[in-house]
Amino acid sequence: MNFSKQFKYRPKIEGGKVKKYKSYLVAGMGGSHLAGDIIKNIASEVDIKIVSDYAPEKVEIPKTLIIASSYSGNTEEAVDWLNKSIQSGQPVVAIGIGGKVVEIAKQNGVPFIQLPDTGIQPRSALGYSMLAMMRIIKLNDLLRESKRFNNILKAKETEEDGRQLAQKLKDKTPVIYTSANNYSIAYNWKIKFNETGKIPAFYNVVPEVNHNEMTGFDVKEKSAHLSKPFHFIFIKDKTDHPQNIKRMEVTEKLYRDRGFSVESLELSGETKMEKIFNSLILADWTALHIAVLYDLESEQVPMVEEFKGLI
Known about the structure:
By secondary structure, the chain is α/β, with parallel strands linked by helices. It has helices spanning 34-42, 76-88, 99-108, 126-137, 140-146, 149-152, 159-168, 183-195, 224-227, 242-257, 272-293, 302-310, and strands at residues 23-27, 47-51, 64-69, 92-96, 112-114, 173-179, 202-206, 230-236, 261-266. The longest helix has 22 residues, at 272-293.
């Protein structure tokens, strides 16, 4: 796993200049919007909206830059946002390794960043995508911080922890919980379990989970069998709101008291961004070893490709 090497990348905006905007809308699907989710977490002062859907017929969002993000360059929802933004005169920039978004951007004088095409899946190219979006949004302090990650992210040292967690998850369906502030971490874990591990996985956030979801796990004799397949992963952060820290602890206790499989993980690192990437490296290894346990191919996403062919 050479994830840390992605932080050697220096993204270049081509096809025009991009000024700073009051707000940003990231239009992307799956792994192509993960970078936007994480930037929302890290840079809370930046107004970023994530849209994983098609564009409206006319795109008119004042003081907003649309970021049409498609790692492959051909994701039809992102292409739709790019085309309709151009037609509406809405400021837009494209990100992709090539494909239609880069081609359309070149043809229409739209700024774009062409990511390195290393043959990896979008979820695995998170470093490249993060750097590109930070360059567009002009998060220069975070760009400078990210230069350190090539040296401080020790992916190989995390593999054994991932292998052990995968063993605990054998024959289980993971449910990942974080604070609302860290939802992007939980969502990334879920995607890695789905796409790399090829297993169902779900996530939710505190405090919302305490107002509905946990009631579904209040085990009763006649419904206890419905809860048995789940394994709960609590990802904790010492910088969370004190009440959310308490909520996580109490929820974990309630689940353990009911006999559920529970794992508690603490975010570690000197900065928020470092904490996130350390956690996601562990998620990568865990998902990879889950695929090994079930003797499954971990890289490709054949059902997604089958679906694309059918539509």
